[in-house]
């Protein structure tokens, strides 16, 4: 069962293209890993797919409720100055 699809996604920060995805489909039971260097757009991609932020171009369509569970909350990162 298709749970999410994204088409022609682009996200810029200033004039820098961070994310460019032509076509993405996620089906129930899929296992997905997102890897990349710091600042490469991994968190931005997850926020776009969860519809927490809008892409500059393209669209995301969700066919069910989707939750993005963060590993760390912003409060816990700010409270621990060792990061």
UniProtKB/TrEMBL annotation:
Source taxonomy: Bacteria, Bacillati, Bacillota, Clostridia, Eubacteriales
Pfam families reported for this sequence: ABC_tran
InterPro entries in UniProt: ABC_transporter-like_ATP-bd, ABCF_ATPase, P-loop_NTPase
Residue intervals of the ABC transporter domain: 23-60
Organism: Acetivibrio straminisolvens JCM 21531
Cross-referenced PANTHER family: ABC TRANSPORTER ATP-BINDING SUBUNIT, ABC TRANSPORTER DOMAIN-CONTAINING PROTEIN
Protein name: ABC transporter
GO MF assignments: ATP binding; ATP hydrolysis activity
